[in-house]
Amino acid sequence: ATRFNALKADAHWQQVWDERRTYAADDHSAKPKSYVLEMFPYPSGKIHMGHVRNYTMGDVLARYRRMTGYEVLHPMGWDAFGMPAENAAMEKGVHPGNWTRQNIATMKAQLKRLGFALDWTRELATCEPDYYGHEQALFLAFYEAGLVYRKESAVNWDPVDMTVLANEQVIDGRGWRSGALVEKRKLSQWFLKITQFADELIEGLGALEHWPDKVRLMQENWIGRSQGLRFRFLLSDSGSVEVFTTRPDTIYGASFVAVAADHPIAQSLAAQNSNAAAFIERCKQGGTTAAELETQEKLGFDTGLTAAHPLGAGELPVYIANFVLMEYGTGAVFGVPAHDQRDFEFATKYKLPIRRVVADGERTDPAFDDDAAYTGPGVLVNSRELDGMSVEDAKRSVIARAEEAGWGEGTTVYRLRDWGVSRQRYWGTPIPVIHCAACGEVPVPREQLPVVLPEDVSFDVPGNPLDRHPTWKHVACPRCGAEALRDTDTLDTFADSSWYFIRFASAPDDKPFDKAVAESWLPVGQYIGGVEHAILHLLYARFWTRALRHVGMLDVAEPFTGLFTQGMVTHETYRLDIPDHDGPPGALWVNPADLTVGEGGALSFETAEGASIPVLRGRVEKMSKSKKNTVDPEPIVDQYGADAVRWFMLSDSPPERDLEWSENGIEGAWRFVQRLWRLVDAEPDVAAGQDTVLDRKLHQTIAGIAGDIEALSFNKAVAKLYELTSAIEKSAPSTSRANAVDTLLRLVAPMVPHLAEEAWAARGKSGLVADAAWPEVDAALLVEDEVTIAVQVNGKLRDTLVMAKGAAKDATEAAALASDKVVRALEGKTPRKVIVVPDRLVNIVA
Ligand code: ANZ
Ligand code: ZN
């Protein structure tokens, strides 16, 4: 028997598929269309195992759909703008464009070696003008439709490097390079009106039944629609302050009012009071993210004002507080320390009353002495007319009362804010707007698109290279011709990934996409990617799609009707056993490829100087550069071939769970590929005879696998293929066996496509197995397992019958009476009575 030469077969079939453009999707096909997409990669350098797993899953589905008669769109491209390219420019002096394009070339070659059924003719990279120029046109279409506006908003400012920092460049509140405390600064920035679609984006989730519930819930929480009450407190200086609450039920538990540092009340106080001004300055320090606001110490400044409780429950002190955001609600709140954790921390610090108004089980006492707020459900207590009501009833009651009496009104609010898209960075899509002293903001005329990034930029000093480029930003105003300035900000890279799936479906030169062609492919029927994108990317893409519908460019409601979030690839971690190591903690991790395995499996690391340091095994964790527990797919493909890697990625764990990479696992996969090959190699050309047991097994497998692949339960499909392979191996030569081997090749083709092609050709089949039709199921052969039935004559066992389980009584009786042994035992007598116990026994009384 020969051995399957994976490397040779991989290269050969990849070339054949390429030459024949096997996986190029035809826009004009008469077949039903199916769009299978995996989240496109960021070209960070090399393909990692997470990519391999992700793309293998999508590939199996795409190949299966092709075989079942669909015209499949399965494209690939590059999410090619972003910070890492600029970091590389700053650290290594390489141009972001060169770095990115080099990485793309490397990663493309690596993806090709895995034999994915991708339509490379549709490849795109978001960093090229033929992509981002169209994005600029979409931005302008949104601008014209009033979905884009500009307003002042806070950014992270590094006072030493004098530059704006991305959130990921702020580490523990300090600039990543300077180490200086980051400040909040206001800049004029562009926003997309995602909040206009907040209700639609929540309601649309209901129809996404092929999305994981957990992702739908995350989206819903992110949008955070809540019903609340707005009302005004009258202040002791005869002014007033409007607050917003989602817990009007707790109104009798209020013990203070707090306003944001940039609230007008705070600002006017600061104008007269230098302590207040200093406090406000202090609030500006610290990060701008929600998480930072949540965790930072709660600080307040007593304004000396008091607010009159709207239901006559006394006067409340008014504070300026760092945990109140100007951008949310009204920028002012009333604090209920017993039932809100931030308020609790604040009240504890400033010794304000903490009064229970929602019973915590049996506990109804107004005095509250727990060490955290109680935020659960319960019955209202210590709340006058609200006592005894549930939280929900009390909310409704207070809102109704406020509306009746005219001091407040119920409102719907959203946690979701408009999407700030301006980034003070080079490596992104230039925002196509020109600022003119006379005309204000002027969109770049369409015929001047794309606004192309200048190539000659420097990264030797901090800041935005576009802004300090000597000529790029200086242009004539398109409207009046006067000297004007380009916007030097670029778009958030989430904009690039919000419509790439549309450009894959249709990519004319002269416009972002053709409406009819794009609509013929969309929505993406199955989208596969990491759960880390469950919120922002998916929400932005859903918004972008709706915005396109709003401007009449695309009539699609939801971009992705099916979503699957796959688990991670994990590996054991290894650490140098150096007890009193005082360097950075990360320095002790060792990559699995650098280990030496000694006697009894003891691990060590050999230094360049020839010393041997013992190594400890650590936990199994997500493969990551920081823990150095990555396994580079490339040498694995070199050693075992693409099919073994693909098979392993599918076989071990359910796809939504983590998959632990192991040497044993990949070796097992390789052995299976070889087993398949031996089966083909050993199969004689001519054989006769039926093997109904094998036929049945085969058809059960065909039926089962189809369901498994549709459900993306690849590990179950793999298990069934193992079983079928064993059954064929054990069977004697027969026409059934020959047919089973041919059919098996079609069944494994989506998973191990190179071996399947090689074997298909070796068996003399015409065409490519990739183009072959998925096997049909013979329903008659799906009957459950067989049963053995005892046949007695006058109570004595005379024969056994093997019959299909559930066979009819008369068929069983007829089979028993036809038995030679029974005929002999009857000695010519006519049976008087035949008793059939289905699936068990036939007793013949003569
Ligand atoms: C009184 C109260 C009592 C509140 C209680 C909560 C619990 P969600 O549900 O996330 O929408 N809030 C309102 N505006 C704010 C702002 N600008 N900055 C910081 N906090 C603000 O949050 C709404 C709740 O967050 C509101 O309800 C308000 O505090 C606070 F037991 O009012 B609550
Ligand atoms: Zn002008």
Automatic annotation (TrEMBL):
Query: Where found in the cell?
Result: Cytoplasm
**Pfam families named among the record's database cross-references:** Anticodon_1, tRNA-synt_1, tRNA-synt_1_2, tRNA-synt_1g
Q: Does the keyword Ribonucleoprotein apply?
A: no
Q: Which domain of life is it from?
A: Bacteria
Q: Which HAMAP family match?
A: Leu_tRNA_synth_B (MF_00049_B)
The similarity comment for this entry is:
Belongs to the class-I aminoacyl-tRNA synthetase family.
Q: Which GO terms describe its molecular function?
A: leucine-tRNA ligase activity
For this chain the motif 'KMSKS' region maps to 622-626
SUPFAM superfamilies noted in UniProt:
Anticodon-binding domain of a subclass of class I aminoacyl-tRNA synthetases, Nucleotidylyl transferase, ValRS/IleRS/LeuRS editing domain
Principal location listed in the UniProt entry: cytoplasm
Q: Which NCBIfam families match?
A: leuS_bact
Q: What is this protein's record name?
A: Leucine--tRNA ligase
**Domain Methionyl/Valyl/Leucyl/Isoleucyl-tRNA synthetase anticodon-binding: where?**
693-809
| Domain spans labelled Aminoacyl-tRNA synthetase class Ia | 415-572, 621-662
